[in-house]
Amino acid sequence: MPDKAARTVIYKPDPHGPEYLVFVDDVVEYERWKAGDRSIALALIIGKFAIYSAPKGHTGPLNEVSRQEIENVFFGGENNVKDKSVE
Prior knowledge:
The protein is α+β, with helices and mostly antiparallel strands.
């Protein structure tokens, strides 16, 4: 039986800044997507399209990130927010 356990993907762009988290619902599909199969819709992998910040580490309280913070942290490179948030 495939592993369907949820997983947390953590992105920390700055060693002194907050961590950003996305919750992945389907680990098997996420691993296929991460390996390069971009035909998999992110809606199958992520149940809720929300990014959370953890100012005190991923074991502390989580805050849903505002659109402005998403734009500031995730945009600016060649990747778009949906790719950066789960890679």
